[in-house]
Design goal:
Elements (H helix, E strand, L loop, with lengths): L2 E8 L7 E10 L3 H15 L12 H6 L13 H12 L1 H4 L4 E7 L10 H17 L1
Antiparallel strand pairs: 1-2, 2-3
């Protein structure tokens, strides 16, 4: 039996004190059902004219930003939060294992670093979080 792992990261800016990588593990027999469910959520929360190539992004839903959810006349904040909650229920609804890694950053003081060293530190923290 195959497994698919869908992961994403947060906190890669040098000013954020923590880098987190999190995701779900999906069995090969589950992914079509979950894909259909997500497509139904898109039909429910995204107007037809905005669906072509659409992908949910939690930050857009939470903050009401982005090409689609940034338009408050079509997508009120309450609606985008409702969509985010529906997405967050997916692991529980489909009994998906969650995986995550957390890396706490040591030094956030930009005055003693260069852009290159901050980028390198971000890469190290992201790699550590992925490895965990």
């Amino acid at each position: 039996m195959s497994r698919f792992i869908y992961i994403d990261e947060s906190g890669i800016s040098y000013l954020e004190p923590v880098t987190v990588v999190a995701g779900v593990i999906v069995k090969d027999k589950q992914w079509r059902t979950i894909e259909r469910y997500i497509n139904r959520l898109i039909e429910q929360y995204v107007h037809e004219e905005d669906r072509n190539g659409f992908i949910f992004h939690a930050t857009d839903l939470f903050h009401g930003r982005g090409k689609v959810f940034g338009d408050r006349t079509k997508y009120p904040h309450e609606r985008s939060h409702e969509a985010l909650k529906a997405l967050l229920e997916i692991p529980s609804k489909f009994h998906l294992p969650l995986v995550y890694g957390v890396s706490f950053k040591n030094d956030l003081s930009p005055e003693n670093s260069t852009k290159a060293t901050r980028r390198f530190d971000a890469c190290k923290n992201q790699a550590k979080a992925y490895a965990l």
